[in-house]
Design a protein that fits this description.
The structure is a single chain. Helix content is 40%, strand content 18%. It is of the alpha/beta class and 243 residues long. It contains 11 helices and 8 strands. Strands 3-4-2-5-1-6-7-8 form an 8-stranded mixed sheet, sandwiched between helices. Helix 1 crosses helix 11. Strand 7, helix 8 and strand 8 form a beta-alpha-beta unit.
Amino acid sequence: MPQIALQGVRGGVGTTSLCAGLGWALAALGERVLLIDGSPVSQLGVHFNLPAQQDNGWMKALCEGGDWQHSGLRYPDGPDLLPHGVLSHQHALTIARQNEAIAAPLLQALPDLRARYQWIIFDLPADTLPWHETLYPMLDSLLCVTQPDANCHLRLSQRQFPARTRFIINQFNANSRLQQDLHQLWMASLNPLIPLLIHRDEALAEALMMKQPVGEYRPHALVSEEIITLASWLLLNLNGVSS
């Protein structure tokens, strides 16, 4: 019953789209999956036909002293979802005052959620928030999403990553000599690098416009097949782990 998170080494590497696709792929493989949006941008739900200005969400409920569990949603034939909720300035002030304690009710409930779901997957923003520091030790793996470019390469050399971090290359362009060279360099130096590539594919951008996970929108697209392969790899390598 793995509990994992996806977090980009920087913004713009496709973390949220990959998270939505992975949740869909695992559900398609027969797994019970809960996706939790951990980003104030609150875009994960858009991949599952929620409005861009999502009124309800677990973090918004906690900021207002409400019941975060009422924010849970079920997507037909796919994963369950806990949206974050779009926050106001006042909500942001509440989070700033409480720091990591703001997410405590959800984090304390994770053992019970693990009894109900085979996979719990967090979508985290690239910039670490105070409550993420409490979450990291609870994860079975953190998937750091990268793109083979100079910006990501610099950030990988500058940052310290939590324990149990694995790296995954997204938006790979096989026609780019620079990306090919960085891929070869990272295979030798970035450990542990998941031995799979997620190629740049227009289907991923189209899927977001259609407000669907890419595996539902175009199941036979290259990126959909690669994300299914990633889901199968995680099933083989993470099933049976325990925090």
